[in-house]
Amino acid sequence: xxxxxxxxxxxxxxxSFGKKFVxxxxxxxxxxxxxIFSRDELKQHDMRASxxxxxxxxxxxxxxxxxxxxxxxxxxxxxxxxxxxxxxxPACEYxxxxxxxxxxxxxxxxIDAAIDQGVKRILALSTDKAVNPINLYGATKLCAEKMFVQxxxxxxxxxxxxxxxxxxxxxxxxGSVIPVFMEQRKRGRITITDPRMxxxxxxxxxxxxxVVRCIExxxxxxxxxxxxxxxxxxxxxxxxxPDCAVECIGIRPGEKLHEVLVSEDEARNTVETExxxxxxxxxxxxxxxxxVNARPLAEGFRYTSDNNEAWLTSGELRELIAPExxxxxxxxxxxxxx
Length: 338
Fold this sequence. Notes:
The chain is of the alpha/beta class.
């Protein structure tokens, strides 16, 4: 697609993903208009002051809970990246109604406004926690996935199309465990929940490049899952603080030992390409000629962080977290408190 002719809006545009998305869009794709939609005026001011002040940028204060404001914001927009969400698992558990209002009802508002305003393509960001969820955050993201897939039927004969991108932990995001380990190493002791724990891992830039590729290739209805490496939490802790003692404190409520990005049940409707799995909707409106060149998965396939074929070596892990390790104390403290 010709990105130079697109008017793009990203919800949650002042977050970690939003900033990297805006940076790469301005650097490589040069859209006609790029709207940063978020509810925090201070973060918008700080983002503009830090250098995000291109003529194509628009800063739009609003909340995805506000359906009327979204209608206004999406006027003339052709592409939406929906990244706004309440993501902290403990906060969602303690404030369940707030998580539902933002992650589910906010998603509904995005869908309605996109259809009403004739947006062409909408990609919603999801998470591994949506697969067989054991916490409220995962449950809300599962609901959001279901809504965005079925929204293609709501759009009917319009050209508006919806898809999702589902991936795991992101190096450099505000929810990353790396700043926590960096802060703990000052005291000579790192805490992990379980030495067997594994996680999928990708960088912010890889996440953004995935989203761009999904928007370019989507038919509407897919859930895209990237093929990304796994790592052991104990290896991460020992890489960040090799001389520190490691204390195991046990699995916390709502936390999984291993991550799942494609479940065995989903695998029956999933095909793979060289770098992605594409979960196809099990609905009558889905055209089976979509993704005919992709390969079906073997019976019983599951894509989990502990049975992954790709694992980060110690050297790759050090290289991946090097930018995080260079943060000063103030930046670490700010990341933890965000």
